[in-house]
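Dear colleague,

As promised, here are the two records you asked about, laid out in our usual form so they can be pasted straight into your sheet.

NAME FIELD: protein one
SEQUENCE, THEN STRUCTURE:
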Amino acid sequence: MLLRLRQLCFHPALIADAEATLQKKETDKETFKVELARAKKEVGPEFVRKIKAMRLESAVERAKAEKSGEDASASSDECSICFEDILANESGGAVTRCGHSYCRPCITEHIG
């Protein structure tokens, strides 16, 4: 039985998917670095620090709510237009200068 589990874990289809996932994570990491540098240039490092602090506070509150068994779904990670979870959106999100968060498709559609 252990042999079958090993064979399953090292199945070529699973390994290929893992490589694609790793590649996507690396691409996402590079994209994040570029976006962070652009944000610092566009709105300044102080604004970026403020948004990071807000996001960290939101994550801590969500973790505390989950730990205590409360509903952690009400968070600041929801789009101000469609009210969907920004983190669940493949395209990612955007934060405006006023500090509101939007999923990228919504903000692109409403601005463009």
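NAME FIELD: protein two
SEQUENCE, THEN STRUCTURE:
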Amino acid sequence: MNIDLSYLEDITGGDKEMMIEMLDLFIEDIPEQISLIKTHASEKNLSKLGSETHKLKPTLQYVGLFEMFEIIKELEESAKSGVYSEEINSLANKVSEYSKEAIPLLHNKRKELS
């Protein structure tokens, strides 16, 4: 998994404190967002799932988690189709696994900025 902070660096003007703040917010918020995504997927609540995945996409772009962004994008499209399939649970689980890998990597990136 690769993390590319170049977009975050661009939008913060290279301000390391601001970059650290944004990374901290992401690290703090991602577990709850992923939990909601998994819950909505397992409950087959496609409307809430579509909404939650949509909210997560920009954050993933900011911190350069493009692989995870693509999965979230696919999950959002599946949810917004209005037709439940087992692929939705599979994608939600995949996002959860990616997040477990991503958070330690983001902690490392944060340390590098300190």
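A couple of things worth noting about protein two: The chain has a mean pLDDT of 94. Residues 6-113 form a domain with the Four Helix Bundle (Hemerythrin (Met), subunit A) fold (CATH 1.20.120).

Best,
R.
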